[in-house]
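I hope you will forgive my troubling you with a question about protein structure. Could you please explain, in whatever detail you think fit, how the structure tokens follow from the sequence? Thank you for your consideration; the sequence and its tokens are set out here.
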Amino acid sequence: MQNQFELGYDIQRLVSAFQFETGEVIKEQETLVILDEIQECPKALTSLKYFCEEAPGLAVAAAGSLLGITIHSGTGYPVGKVNALDLYPMSFREFLAATGNAGMSELVASNDPAMINSFAGKITPLLRQYYYVGGHARGSSRVSGERAAGGRKVHSEPDPQ
């Protein structure tokens, strides 16, 4: 998709290219467009300004590792058009709460080794599930009981539109 940004900042053309690439219809007020690893394409970062000005009803999120420290000469950062958030995987306690194990989350928070060890038979499988889905929130929502296959599957699926 990088070549699409190299052609310029015609937002209608870019949206059409996204639709051709994904096979999904992009609708203002309904679709979230995610530009992942945006640091790899400096013009994609610059395009955020044009999305904001020319398609204000279209929600666009940009993600990328080291995005905050990536510097590219010859491109502009869309000052005043970007809200930056630092996102992290869920903690084990957050995972427990998200999977309906709030009681276990409180137990872990108690920092009582004797009590925690007495429930190791319940906590250990949950810890394995947490490791399996990598703290990924959407993956965690698919974990049920002892089956984590649905949580792992999420890593190979495209994010929902």
About this structure: The beta strands are 32-36, 59-63. The first strand starts at residue 32 and ends at 36. The radius of gyration is 20 Å.
